[in-house]
Amino acid sequence: MEKIKLIIKKIIFTGVDEKTPKSLKAYIVQTNTNGLIYFVLDFLLALVFSILLSDSYVSKLLMFAGVIFLFSSIGLNKLRFYNLSRVSTVTVGSLLVVLCSFYLGKNVLAHASLLLGAIFPFVYFNSRERWQIFVCLLMPIIGFCLLLFLDYDWGPQINIQSKSAQMALEAVFMFVPFFGIVSNTFIAVRAREEVSEELKKSQEHINMLFKVLTHDISTPLGVATMGCELVKRKAHLDDETLKRIDKVYTSLKNTSLIIKKVKHMAMLEGGKAQYQIEAIDLKPLIDSLVEELADQLKEKDITIDIISKNLTNNDLALADKSILKYQVIQNILTNAIKFSEISSKIIICLSSFKDFVTIEIQDYGVGIEKEKLSDLFSWTIATSTKGTNNEMGTGYGMPLAFNFLKVMGGKLDVTSKIATVDDLSSGTKFTITLPIYKEPLQISQKSA
Q1: Are 198 and 291 members of one domain?
Q2: Has residue 212 been placed in a domain?
Q3: How many domains does the chain have?
Q4: Sign of the dihedral defined by the CA atoms of residues 384, 388, 392, 393, in that order
Q5: What is the dihedral of CA 435, 440, 443, 447, to 10 degrees?
Q6: Are 301 and 154 part of one and the same domain?
Q7: Less Cβ around it within 10 Å: N or C end of the chain?
Q8: Which pLDDT tens digits describe the chain residue by residue (448 residues)?
Q9: Count of Cβ atoms closer than 10 Å to residue 392 Cβ
Q10: At 403, which helix (H) or strand (E)?
Q11: Which phi-psi region, left, alpha or beta, contains residue 420 (left: φ > 0; alpha: ψ -120 to 50)?
Q12: Same domain, 302 and 185
């Protein structure tokens, strides 16, 4: 018995290996399971037709359908044609019921084939796989229309003298689509539950590791940072050594800041911290931030011009003030400084339009390559590059800013241009869009 179970398991997992994505694994197992079930079912039906009804033609047709089921599911998955496997399995299943309806001349079975065709695609495919769903929906409709055109009562009829035998056979045929819907739905739901459970456990494991790592790293980082500060104050060092210690100190501070920001975002997403949404006057907020960045601006002799187009004192933005200032605007401004040339300019333009206020931050630096621009807000794709003064970055500032804004009901857009031989102008513009305050102000606490 155990050997049989192992063989069945091996057949069901045909086409699955260590590299197979978990989301695809569920569909492969589902397709293989259904292919095996219908292979057996078709052969049993073939025996019924051959032995009880002496209809060798339909018997052979059903055996052929069983083999097709096996090939379209397990065979194609073995060859790694995963999409084709799912499309063909769904199509064969629906058309088999159409064949049954043609044989019996029963409207209800033709309708059942349409029902299968309406359900199967959404069991086998996710909503993003649109062309596969379209094909699977189209095939049973074509089959149904063909039967209508042919007037399928002309089809072969079962002529059994015994009324009970006739009813029993029709019940078997009615059971085919019913069993198809039940088995497919059950297998699909179970497979997705297993994937969901695996992802949940994986996420819990990652969260636990994240907490341990951030806790264990924060302490030595703090000690190392204080050590650098102490050495800078007390030790008599030459300029070269002092520069190196400054670089170490800056790297430690940046790493600590990243850990702090990521921990904060994790707390917001976990519901352990909340966004304090309030009405914000943007001009004073940006003025104060520019003052705080004075040393960085002075180092590269960069000036910042703040322009208010049609923004009045009554046009307030709705956001978490601290997050907007330090996690969003500061990240973007720091990037603008990083990629600007010495003695250049950054323009911040404030404006309002209908229900939104916008903050445009335009620099005239080196610009961002088109290939990197589309992945700028991605957590998984590295986009960090050195600044014009060899400043280092992490690549996480923009994803953080993008996600913070998204949860606060805002959005972040970016356009960029790199200098060419024909056009030497370059630069990047970030546009922050936030909801505008409307009376009466409802101060709220918004979880991620």
Answers
A1: no
A2: no
A3: 2
A4: negative
A5: -50
A6: no
A7: N
A8: 777 778 878 887 888 877 777 667 777 887 888 788 878 877 887 887 777 667 677 778 778 878 887 888 888 888 888 878 777 777 777 666 666 666 665 555 566 666 666 666 766 677 677 777 787 777 777 767 776 676 555 444 555 556 666 666 666 666 766 776 677 677 767 777 777 777 777 777 766 766 666 666 777 777 787 888 777 777 677 778 877 887 787 777 767 776 776 776 677 666 666 778 889 999 999 998 898 888 888 889 999 999 988 877 778 899 988 889 888 998 899 889 988 888 899 999 999 888 899 999 999 988 888 878 878 887 666 666 777 777 766 667 788 888 889 888 899 999 998 876 566 678 899 999 999 987 654 544 554 4
A9: 13
A10: helix 397-407
A11: beta
A12: no
Alpha helices by DSSP H, 235-299: 239-269, 282-292, 294-299
37 domain residue, yes or no: yes
Q: Which among 175, 203, 231 is the end of a domain?
A: 203
Strand positions, DSSP E, 300-400: 303-308, 317-320, 345-353, 356-363
Same domain, 280 and 181: no
Domain span including residue 306: 274-446
Residues 392 and 285 in one domain: yes
The residues near 421 (Cβ < 8 Å, ≥ 6 apart) are none
Q: Which of 203, 225, 255 is the last residue of a domain?
A: 203
Flag whether the pTM goes above 0.85.
no
- CATH of residue 408: 3.30.565.10
- Do 175 and 280 fall into the same domain? no
Please, which residues have CB within 8 angstroms of residue 276's CB and are 6 or more apart in sequence?
A: 320, 321, 322, 443, 445
